[in-house]
Design a protein that fits this description.
Layout (H helix, E strand, L loop, with lengths): L5 E2 H6 L2 H8 L8 H6 L8 H14 L2 H9 L7 H5 L4 H9 L7 H18 L12 H11 L4 H23 E2 L4
Parallel strand pairs: 1-2
Catalytic activity: 5-hydroxy-2-oxo-4-ureido-2,5-dihydro-1H-imidazole-5-carboxylate + H(+) = (S)-allantoin + CO2
GO biological process, one term: urate catabolic process
Pathway: Purine metabolism; urate degradation; (S)-allantoin from urate: step 3/3
């Protein structure tokens, strides 16, 4: 996905603005997680960088976590249908086959998105690259029965998976 190779050594030596710009797309929405990770450099490995990023996300106040979740696009939502997803989100939804749905399947996703958003106040977040349309639809069914607290926790776990995959697409671990 990345057009240029960035190494972990590069990440460790970047000035703050370059660091933020390089890693901002690991998460949807404003780059507050990446910004807060900057002072913790240098990172010994990509795993350590990922752990730091996720620790910041998990330690954030609930309202900031929910804002992070709200920054995610709906699966097969308006942004996907009009072609305005970020390149990362577009590729992730395509990897799950969500760019090849029938009209009926699109309607099912949109109905589930609406139910989920009404129940929890944020979009259904799942690591699409680790799923296909069937497992995503099953996920809607199961997760609509969760409590708000359970669902925030699970959605953040999915964000962590998305971040890990995006990080590995972007940065070469030259620490070995």
């Amino acid at each position: 996905m990345a057009s240029l190779t960035i190494t972990l050594q590069d990440i460790n030596t970047y000035e703050k603005e370059t660091f933020i710009s390089a890693l901002a797309n690991l998460f949807e929405g404003p780059p507050w997680i990446v910004t807060n990770a900057y002072p913790t450099r240098p990172f010994a490995s990509l795993d350590q960088l990922h752990q730091v990023l996720c620790s910041i996300m998990y330690a954030a106040p609930l309202d900031q976590q929910v804002a992070l979740l709200r920054a995610h696009p709906d699966l097969v939502g308006r942004a996907a249908l009009i072609g305005s997803l970020s390149p990362a989100s577009k590729g992730e939804q395509a990897a799950a086959g969500l760019d090849q749905l029938t009209g009926e399947e699109i309607a099912t996703f949109q109905h589930n998105n609406k139910l989920y958003r009404e129940r929890f106040g944020f979009p259904f977040v799942i690591c699409a690259r680790e799923n296909k349309k069937e497992s995503i639809l099953d996920g809607f069914d199961k997760r609509l029965n969760h409590t708000f607290e359970q669902e925030v926790t699970l959605a953040l776990t999915e964000v962590a998976k998305i971040c890990s995959l995006r990080l590995r697409d972007l940065v070469v671990d030259d620490s070995l």
